[in-house]
Specification:
The chain has 10 helices and 8 strands. The protein is α/β, with parallel strands linked by helices. Strands 1-2-3-4-5-6-7-8 form an 8-stranded parallel β-barrel, surrounded by 5 helices. Helix 1 packs parallel to helix 2. It starts with 21 loop residues before the first strand and ends in a 30-residue tail after the last strand.
């Protein structure tokens, strides 16, 4: 990062067409990590894995937390996909989170240089937290609020979340780029990760057909190593173990050239999630802080 802040971020980011392979991690923040922990783990994300971005997941409502995120991202040369978290219990706390985040983005002079985008999520359409017309309106209002900061806005969602709301074309039209949940383990035809590419393509096809050529990312994207009460397959043949978690990311690596050429200037993908301490079964690191398998994903091809 430069020693003096640039005047603006108009020409700050690399062209999205360069973001077509592994771009970083989803990172769960419900633990309200300290600034020390954020800096340590962001340094690992950047230096060990050559990541560009961190995609936030969950919510921390501690005052000043996103300022700590901004500092850790700035100090380690990372961008952030920020998140307005609806959660799973209903209520209006998401409005407070929205207002707090937007205020921080305006107040913190470094924020627009690390915030690559703001997401509404996670899976607000699938969870029916708002009618799709209201969600589209929220996206448009956030875009207007952030227009002077050059920060785009999206929704973090499954293909099925759109499809079960009649396609929710108004949301697809409103968002600036498309953050896709790609979780083939839950498909009714799931078996092993090595056999999941047709499922990935089927979900991707919806966004290619209806996304208007917008930039796409697989943001909540992975295969679990274990099941849990909240992680249960919809196919009796779906296998959750560490070899399949590894195989899924190796599958995406093997499709680097394909993902590079997808409409919308290629697809970048995140690994969900950084550590099993954040979401058991999905982490690249286990509960003891050790890598569950060798992970050196391609960042170009």
């Amino acid at each position: 990062m430069p020693p003096v802040l640039p005047r603006d971020n108009t020409h700050w980011w690399c062209d999205p067409s360069t973001e077509y392979a592994f771009v970083g991690f989803s990172y769960e923040v419900t633990a309200c990590q300290s600034s020390t922990q954020l800096n340590k783990e962001f340094a690992d994300i950047r230096n060990h894995f050559n990541s560009r971005y961190v995609r936030l997941y969950g919510a921390c409502d501690r005052d000043g937390f996103y300022d700590d995120i901004v500092d850790a991202a700035w100090d380690n040369g990372l961008g952030v996909h920020a998140l307005i978290w609806f959660g799973f219990t209903g209520g209006d706390i998401w409005m407070t989170r929205r207002d707090t985040l937007l205020a921080t983005l305006h107040a913190n002079p470094k924020a627009k240089f690390v915030t690559r985008g703001v997401q509404f999520g996670s899976e607000p359409l699938y969870d029916n937290v708002l009618p799709h017309q209201e969600l589209a309106q929220q996206v448009l209002l956030a875009k207007a609020n952030l227009s002077d900061l050059n920060i785009p806005v999206t929704v973090s969602e499954l293909a099925y979340g759109y499809q079960e709301r009649g396609g929710a074309q108004d949301v697809l039209d409103a968002i600036d780029f498309i953050n896709i949940h790609m979780l083939p383990f839950f498909d009714q035809n799931a078996s092993t990760a090595n056999n999941s590419w047709p499922i990935v393509l089927e979900n991707l096809e919806f966004f290619v057909d209806n996304g208007g050529g917008k930039k796409m990312y697989f943001d909540e994207n992975g295969w679990p190593s274990v099941t849990s009460p909240s992680v249960q397959p919809n196919s009796p043949y779906a296998v959750a173990d560490i070899p399949n978690e590894q195989a899924y990311f190796e599958l995406l690596d093997s499709k680097c050239e394909y993902l590079k050429d997808v409409e919308g200037r290629g697809i970048g993908w995140f690994a969900h999630i950084y550590s099993d301490n954040q979401e058991p079964g999905y982490g690249i690191y286990n509960l003891s802080g050790h890598l569950k398998f060798p992970f050196h994903p391609r960042t170009e091809c």
